[in-house]
Model the fold of this input.
Amino acid sequence: TYVTHPGNQRVEQAMYKGRLRSYFAIPFERRYIWGATAGMLVSLTRVLATAQGQPAPSPILAPRDSGA
Done:
């Protein structure tokens, strides 16, 4: 499905309280799945790939938002 396709999963970064934070994100239609929910879907994707004898995929690293 869309949310378990590695090409739709990404790692994003944002400044929060003076520190650069990384988090998983999956833009989906008009919604934005991120944080723990996206992390669980990324983990599920890796488990499913491993169970099928495929290498565990990694989400893409999204360009850092230059906004403040």
About this structure: Helices lie at 35-51.
